[in-house]
């Protein structure tokens, strides 16, 4: 396999070239002054190379070296970086961040002087929180401070306890070089001989030999581990949402690491040789990824929260990250109804919490006593909704081929068919479902619009037909079929798991409006007593687990619906794609239904890790960063993309190129397309639609056949006949353009 | 409030005493040689002070200084540590770890020389992942390397983006001191004058003034934030498992941070002044805490995983932490049936997964077609069981005053009353429930034992009466009442949330044995075809969310039951108390029920953050450490405690002192006691038992009245009339002894 044991972070190349001429060396970047690279490049009046250029040059050089090698050759490439591990790179970032996509095995050169124990361990920790494996720590023997002794003991203890033994360095100390008569002059006569002899000796020393052997051992262990990982996973792991008869070691993708929008994963190159190759994480890791994999700020934040708290019980206590995240969410959601934040662990639990909240509120207002166990109380929702896999959340969805497999599933509710937004053959249109065509509502089967934005100009569109239809259906369900409802539960705008179905926002607004405007449908209550923030008709829950917090380019999809829900559930992107966390944010009017002198009337739902500080901290840091990105007026990927979509504030835009998206919608294999924020969804024509379809798999095969000029591959997780691509919220637009070209190439 | 802005990590005290005599200084620890403290103490042939002694000396000195102050005085105390932030302490640990319990505001002194950018940022990161807030970074102005310029820009950018602005330092650079003629001699005549003038000037410089002002600002902000936190939380947070009418700002405890078994929280001292005081986390933060709050190794592990991966999708991919954790768990659970690990986010979701697994297996073997929606399929369990708060897990528990409040709750199953282990008046005994007394089984109401261990010697006890009883009940339920069962679901040994009820292990074994030995009760199947690892009768699920992974002193409670479950659910302690993660580990025989050519037959359950690398990594690291502790033959808290309980291998023991536990059981207010592993549960006599009781609250009031000589308080989360104390798995035994004394004092 192509992973080579390449050591970074060694020092003083020029010196090596002079005194150890046998070593084959080359200098990729050089400046005149021996100062930090960011200063050196300035002083030389040069334009600094970009981080991408530096990495590409390194990879190119390594490939050249690799090609020259005979199959049986054993050679080593050491990449020396400049100065300390966090010394600035030529363009001012930190070097350890810059080199991170390569994640090469690392040799840390330690400091044997006074204070060197501290700086060496700190450097190691800085590398660790960036995901590096530090195989080796080299330093000089020195008898006064004896740093090597301490560090040997320290790291050998750490290694013994660590689950990642190869990421904790083996410490090797070597004799220091001879004193030179004047370090600035290198007095040629005597010093040259002394120094070359020193390098000759050292390179043959048992310490250096054992260093090489250990590096080789780590390298081979790493390769071996990557090679067998899929096999072992196939035997040991029970995969989520999978039919295991379709899984084999061949289909399992072993991930070494990840950075930005990319996995670093084991793939096969054109000669069927296994290599580590970047693959674009097209599912944004099940829609969670926000600020890039391996984000160093979020990693430091995770460490900070774990180091400051770990987890602390959250019943009757409060800690800064949980409180501030709650405040941040309420201000961000910008909905005057919302005031209270309840924490849980994932979207599914958060939906169950929301339902418990809503049903209790409905129960106390309308006298549906919860003690009655009226299991027939249901939700009002949309068909093809998905709210999670725990039984309560499943029960809030209509029966499907999937959930009816589950013995305890028992769907309770009414689910509307809905008008869907589609980009077909370059035109944005609404497709009205058959139910709405029959009712004398004068709706056409397809209604075309000039732009996607036009669909979102709700004020200029006629909401009445929708309201009329919805009211008549609800009336029938309640009055004729004697159904009880306890909540409206909607995924605003985009029904993700159901197949990336984009709903007409006007229809969802109409549904909420009808429920709020005709409360008498649901029970008897003097509505005039309610204040403006109180829930009316039924509590309205927005499941923004997928659509919320900027995923679609907006803080909250609710704004685009011009509707304020009573309860909002957020998860996934909430933590920027690092750890699970969910919030169910509710109004005081719902909260008050639980107040009573009786303990048992409280919302008796809780998870052990409720509001865990690591999750809350990462979420707060991530939301700050997302907010910053959304407001950044410099040439960010946001502003560039908005401009390309011709979008002013509060208008629809996407990181995906408008013209590419339109072009893709023109191909005959394509049924329709939708793009918004970081999401691009392509629905393929296929006889068996939905989950059962294999259309996405065919695309996948095409892509893996492509080899993509080896720069990167695509990791696709299709939804039946829907292929979708979702980037982080700070993507490299150049990569997205390349992906659009691959997609276009496939259809051509 | 008593938090003082004290700055750590400044340098060179001796120098300051000489040249800036106006500063009031004192040296708490001093050694002859200017080398790392761990070496200096050796060279001086001294016994190093313990970390506790060092901290106590600092606190004492600060208290003295504080007492001398007039109310209006404004003074500063700076604590200078030795060398770099990770320089060794006298006894060999890292200084930043040693000082961590105090978590004082920190001034980092940066390095203005070549390479200083890297060492300074790394030192900052090492402090951050230990939970420190670095308020200020001081360094000398220097014109060649210009580190101050870079660091100012770097940290001001970090601060702008950070959600914790005060934990990212403001950078202040000051003029360097004058060159001295010989730094080793300090030539008195000229140098003394120069140097004292320098300090005079510097101390009056605008930079140093602004540094003080900024420190003061950060301090006041911190105090303010702690003071208002409870008020704000009362308005913004919806607490888990709580009746909010009983919550007020006064009852909410604001946590500044946590370390080991302690919260650092806002409490009132004897003069009703708010101070930061350690409080023992008696609930082990809802039973999650394993290796101490703010554990630096787990924090570094969290950072490593976040930096290496973030989250990566886990459908059809594999990464090292998930695979290795799965392998580790299977080997640790040491149950030949178990082979497959399914990941989810918390105990409740993991139980739902287990139930879906079991019901499908039962359905395919006995022909209970899941398509039938036979919602009456139920579980066999014990009364007062608790499995989580999502609807599916709730449905697996019998109706109670709590779950019947939830509209969609619909309990499905049969739950046995059970014989309970109790330490009453110094004697370990079993209390047999009435149901088992009536059946001609010859069981006494109370059965006494010589020791707790005797109860666990299952082979020497008579299992027949239990089996006879269980069989007759099941037969009646199935044959007369026509009930269908799909799984056995048990919390082995200790029913936690139900009130820390300890179950006779023989009864649970008997239940499993009856189900496996009489499969014909549940359906028709040719059992002779089954291999030895296959499930028999019904799949047996152990909910080890609370009891598993060493909480009770053993890797798995299953071993003590001498019974191998088909499915085990682990969570809580799994990640050592940092982030949520759950595993449902199952046998191949269950797994195979889901294999089919049809996608829809798979286990279609999945959470976005399935097997998130941060959780898996922390879990793996934590399990390694727990295993290490359990096998450590040195004088660890484990071995000491086992010895005190007179326990050899595989015998019952606890961190809680055997004699104290027995003594507590003697008090007339105490109904019974149970202790095992890190758990001590005291059931109080109370007319209204269960959750409705306020007995624990009375104890709480007593404790908060005690003031506990100010060393630490107790944070109690009672379970009605049960008060329990749960330590981490590496507790400071001295603290536990103090707690036992408080308990005894309360009852006396």
Spatial extent as radius of gyration of chain A: 30 Å
Most extensive protein-chain contact, per-chain counts:
A-B, 192 and 192 residues
The structural class of chain A is: alpha/beta
Q: Please tell me the overall pLDDT of chain A.
A: 89
Which assembly state applies to the chains in this document? homodimer
How would you describe this protein?
Chains A, B: GO terms for molecular function: adenosylmethionine-8-amino-7-oxononanoate transaminase activity; dethiobiotin synthase activity; pyridoxal phosphate binding. Chains A, B: InterPro entries: Aminotrans_3, Aminotrans_3_PPA_site, P-loop_NTPase, PyrdxlP-dep_Trfase, PyrdxlP-dep_Trfase_major, PyrdxlP-dep_Trfase_small. Chains A, B: Keywords: Aminotransferase, Pyridoxal phosphate, Transferase. Two copies of one chain form a homodimer. The first copy, chain A, has 748 residues and is α/β, with parallel strands linked by helices. Chain A folds into three domains: 6-225, Rossmann fold; 253-282 and 635-747, Alpha-Beta Complex (Aspartate Aminotransferase, domain 1), CATH 3.90.1150; 296-630, Type I PLP-dependent aspartate aminotransferase-like (Major domain) (Aspartate Aminotransferase, domain 2, 3-Layer(aba) Sandwich), CATH 3.40.640. Chain A is built from 23 helices and 25 strands. In chain A, the strands form six sheets. Chain A has a seven-stranded mixed β-sheet, sandwiched between helices. A five-stranded antiparallel β-sheet of chain A has the order 15-14-13-18-17. In chain A, strands 6-7-8-24 form a four-stranded mixed β-sheet. In chain A, a hairpin with a 5-residue loop joins β7 and β8 (274-281). In chain A, α10 (296-308) runs antiparallel to α19, α11 (320-333) runs parallel beside α19 and α21 packs parallel to α23. Chain A starts with 5 loop residues before the first strand and ends with a helix. Mean pLDDT of chain A is 89; it is low at 1-11. β6 of chain A pairs parallel with β9 (317-319) of chain B, so a sheet runs across the interface.
């Amino acid at each position: 396999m192509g992973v080579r044991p390449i050591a970074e972070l060694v020092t003083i190349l020029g010196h090596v070239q002079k005194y150890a001429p046998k070593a084959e060396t080359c200098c990729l970047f050089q400046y005149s002054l021996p100062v930090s690279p960011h200063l050196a490049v300035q002083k030389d009046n040069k334009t600094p190379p970009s981080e991408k250029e530096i990495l590409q040059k390194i990879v190119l050089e390594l490939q050249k070296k690799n090609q020259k090698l005979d199959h049986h050759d054993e050679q080593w490439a050491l990449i020396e970086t400049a100065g300390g591990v966090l010394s600035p790179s030529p363009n001012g970032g930190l070097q350890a961040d810059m080199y991170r996509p390569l994640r090469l095995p690392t040799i840390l050169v330690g400091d044997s002087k006074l204070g060197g124990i501290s700086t060496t361990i700190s450097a190691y920790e800085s590398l660790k929180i960036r995901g590096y494996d530090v195989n080796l720590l080299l330093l000089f023997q020195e008898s006064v401070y004896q740093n090597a002794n301490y560090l040997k003991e320290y790291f050998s203890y750490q290694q013994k306890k660590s689950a990642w033994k190869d990421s904790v360095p083996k410490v090797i100390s070597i004799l220091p070089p001879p004193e030179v008569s004047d370090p600035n002059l290198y007095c040629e006569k005597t010093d040259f001989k002394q120094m070359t002899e020193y390098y000759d000796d050292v390179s043959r020393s048992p310490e250096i030999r054992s260093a090489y052997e250990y590096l080789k051992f780590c390298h081979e262990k790493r390769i071996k581990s990557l090679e067998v990982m899929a096999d072992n996973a196939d035997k040991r792991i029970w995969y989520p949402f999978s039919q295991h008869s379709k899984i084999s070691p061949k289909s399992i993708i072993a991930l070494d690491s990840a950075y930005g929008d990319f996995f670093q994963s084991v793939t096969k190159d054109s000669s069927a040789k296994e290599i580590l190759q970047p693959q674009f994480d097209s599912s944004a890791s099940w829609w969670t990824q926000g600020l890039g994999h391996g984000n160093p700020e979020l990693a430091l934040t995770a460490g900070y929260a774990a180091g400051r708290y770990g987890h602390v019980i959250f019943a009757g206590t409060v800690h800064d990250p949980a409180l501030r995240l709650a405040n941040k969410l309420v201000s961000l959601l910008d909905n005057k109804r919302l005031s209270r934040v309840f924490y849980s662990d994932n979207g599914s639990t958060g939906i169950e919490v929301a339902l418990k909240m809503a049903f209790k509120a409905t129960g106390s207002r309308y006298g549906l006593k919860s003690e009655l166990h009226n299991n027939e109380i249901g939700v009002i929702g949309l068909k093809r909704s998905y709210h999670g896999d725990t039984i309560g959340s499943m029960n809030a969805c209509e029966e499907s081929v999937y959930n009816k497999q589950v013995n305890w599933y028992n769907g309770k509710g009414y689910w509307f068919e809905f008008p869907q937004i589609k980009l077909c053959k370059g035109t944005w249109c609404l497709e009205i479902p058959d139910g709405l065509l029959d009712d004398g509502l004068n709706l056409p089967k397809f209604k075309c619009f000039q732009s996607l934005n036009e669909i979102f100009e709700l004020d200029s569109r006629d909401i009445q037909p929708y309201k009329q239809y919805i009211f008549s259906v609800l009336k029938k369900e309640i009055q004729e079929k004697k159904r009880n409802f306890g909540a409206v539960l909607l995924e605003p705008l985009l029904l993700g798991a159901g197949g990336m179905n984009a709903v007409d926002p006007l229809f969802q607004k109409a549904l909420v409006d009808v429920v709020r405007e005709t409360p008498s449908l649901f029970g008897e209550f003097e509505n005039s007593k309610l204040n403006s923030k109180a829930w009316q008709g039924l509590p309205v829950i927005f499941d923004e687990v997928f659509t919320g917090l900027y995923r679609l380019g907006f803080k909250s999809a609710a704004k685009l619906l011009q509707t304020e829900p009573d309860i909002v559930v957020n998860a996934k992107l909430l933590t920027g794609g690092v750890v699970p966390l969910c919030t169910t944010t509710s109004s005081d009017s719902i909260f008050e239904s639980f107040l009573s002198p009786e303990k048992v009337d409280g919302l008796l739902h809780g998870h052990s890790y409720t509001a865990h500080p690591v999750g809350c901290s990462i979420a707060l840091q991530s939301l700050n960063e997302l907010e910053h990105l959304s407001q950044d007026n410099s040439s960010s990927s946001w502003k560039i993309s908005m401009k390309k979509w011709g979008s002013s504030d509060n208008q629809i835009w996407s990181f995906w190129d408008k013209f590419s998206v339109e072009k893709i919608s023109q191909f005959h294999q394509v049924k329709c397309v939708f793009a918004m924020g970081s999401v691009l969804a392509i629905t393929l024509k296929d006889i068996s639609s939905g989950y059962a379809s294999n259309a996405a798999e065919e695309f996948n095969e095409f892509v893996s056949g492509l080899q993509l000029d080896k720069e990167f591959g695509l990791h696709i997780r299709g939804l039946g006949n829907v292929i979708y691509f979702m980037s982080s919220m700070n993507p490299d637009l150049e990569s997205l353009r390349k992906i659009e070209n691959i997609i276009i190439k496939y259809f051509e």
